[in-house]
Structure formats: C-alpha cells, structure tokens
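Researcher: Re-running this chain for the archive, since the previous output was lost when a drive failed. Same request as before.
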Amino acid sequence: QLQLVESGGGLVQPGGSLTLSCAASGFMLDFYTIGWFRQAPGKEREGVSCISSSGDSTNYGDSVKGRFNISRDNAKNMAYLQMNSLRPEDTAVYYCAAEDPIATVPCTKWGIQDFSRPPISEFGSWGPGTQVTVSS
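Model: Regenerated structure tokens:
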C-alpha cells in the first residue's frame, strides 16, 4: 500500500521560499499522478498543483501559478513543491496525495473550479500534512 509523508514546512517571512517534499513508500511512485493540496483553518481543502506520473505534465491553481513549481524524482520515489514569493494567505497545512488511475478528470486537466473544489475522493493515498506559516 502506498504511503506518503510530507516534510519541509515551517515558518517563513512574506516573500520567502520553502520547498516541500513528499516521500513515498510501499509502492513505486511513478505509477501515480501526484497532487499537492492545502487547507487553511476554517476553509475547505483546495488543490495547489499536480504532476503526471512521468512528470511531463503539470497544472497549477491560479493563486500559486508563477510562484510555485511542482516536480518529481521517480528514481527516489519523491515529489516536491517549491514555493516562492510566499504570502500570508499561503499559510495552511499542505498535503501530497496520489490520484487514482481512473480519475474522472485527471488533475493535470483541471480548470479553476476543480482546484477550488477538488475531487478529494479520487485521491486514495494522503500524507499527514506539513504546516506552512507565512508571517513576519
């Protein structure tokens, strides 16, 4: 069974950068499209970004486009989310998740609404999350 664990969160000042990592075990990560999500206190979980199993296709939510970069290293069974120009509104718990191979609409094809209200049920494996706090 695929297990995911995020790391790399922390406290950063506005305008700063962080890189989150998602480590997989129990199954080869290259079988799955990987999504990053976040959830702020009192808010619904939203999609941030995703990357196809091969890494050749990516997609980003509008709120992070141009600031965040998703990548993966299948040889290391790892996925990453590089976050630049961080803003206080980026404060949230960040999760990585593996998309089911038979997803209705692959997250690499999501539109704006899909990132706002992602089909959480189509991601079968989730990490416990890592806290990112952007504050001066």
